[in-house]
Amino acid sequence: QEQLVESGGGLARPGGSLRLSCAASGSIFDIFTMAWVRQAPGKDREFVAGISEAGRKSYYADSVKGRFTISRVNANNTVILQMNRLNPEDTATYYCVGDSRALFSLIARISGGDYGMDYWGKGTLVTVSS
Fold this sequence. Notes:
This protein is mainly β. The chain contains 1 helix and 11 strands; from the N terminus they run E-E-E-E-E-E-E-E-E-H-E-E. A hairpin with a 4-residue loop joins strand 7 (68-73) and strand 8.
């Protein structure tokens, strides 16, 4: 059974940076599309960034493009979200998500309110405040 555990959340100042990590247990990480999804208080879940199983393709929400970078190290079963130039609108719980389907299928489903991905982590809270 694959499990996803996020770490690296916390408090950051506007303009600051945080680095989120997601460690996957199990043996099938390298065939999974991985993504980060966030949920701010009182709002729906929002796709943030995703990366294909081999790491060749990545995709970002417009709100984070140019500020966030997703990467993965399959040898270590790890996916990283580097977040720079944070602003208060980035405040949310960030979830690591893994799915056996393709990246753009995952994005379409999340955007359409379908959160039935194969695996979700429990989330890590990011707060951006001065």
